[in-house]
């Protein structure tokens, strides 16, 4: 089964298939040179690894059982059902998980200066500013004009001093408590505002199996899987409630093409999670900040992948010996690392580095505060003009 990074092929004009590169391509070429055999490649017509359907095996497993091929490769998972009819030489362990698209950064709006506090906090502060002057007016010994008291208490929110003095201990305690609460509110707002403006906000999205199960159950997410994969069986046979929920919303997709083999989509929709081998996702998509894809840290299960052959295959012992040597010497790991760093280099060459750290402030980020400043200055100017006009009119009447 051709698979990018694993078993990449090329079909010429005569229909001859030959290996190009890939992890398992390196393995088969190594075995061919060491054991001195030649090989011919065949593709399963149904583009499947192998499932037992309608009383017979499909895909590569079926080809082995029908003696159409001696060996099968291409990220072939060793399952209990498959092992009952064919033999395997395991050479890797894979974990199965999900990959989703990392949500884009939240674009700051002109009202972003309101984001440091939730609307309940803003509502509480507004009610306090309206109610507390009347309460202080009743409790204070010194009878301060309501206008002065109201403006002074609002000014405390903007770090301004009060416009009156009082010798009463009760008055000092009341005003002092108000000043302290407003200072804490103002300082907290300033700190949160700078952090929310300079560090881009982003929705972490779905990152756990439990969250994915909830999103799938509510119809917000779909789970895609390559047609014919055994990973679906892991979900359907699981006793975990979350995995059972996910299994009822599986959508089988066709990620196969004769030219390039099986390739996961370069772009994933915002509401799609793809189920597959974790190690392949790492090869295909890479890791942040070089990728906008997130591979779940959680796994739904682990299993072996290996080279498949018919029961009683003559050369199994020699193949097992040489594959064990490749694994124990670290050569197979070296092949994987080469593919992984090749993927990283491709992402770096494309300039796909996603910066999610601090960023400089722009005029758009501060558009809301600047707008309020402009409105305040305009109102102040209009009030000043109206005051002058009123004074001129009253003087003229006299």
TrEMBL record:
Taken from the UniProt entry, a GO cellular component term is: plasma membrane
Cellular compartment(s): Cell membrane
Membrane topology term: Multi-pass membrane protein
Name under which the protein is recorded: Lig_chan-Glu_bd domain-containing protein
Record carries keyword Glycoprotein: yes
Give any Pfam family that matches.
Answer: Lig_chan-Glu_bd
Provide the species name. Answer: Caerostris darwini
Q: Among its keywords, does the record have Iron?
A: no
Q: Which residues cross the membrane?
A: 117-136, 178-201, 366-389
Q: What is its main location?
A: membrane
Q: Where is the Ionotropic glutamate receptor L-glutamate and glycine-binding domain?
A: 5-66
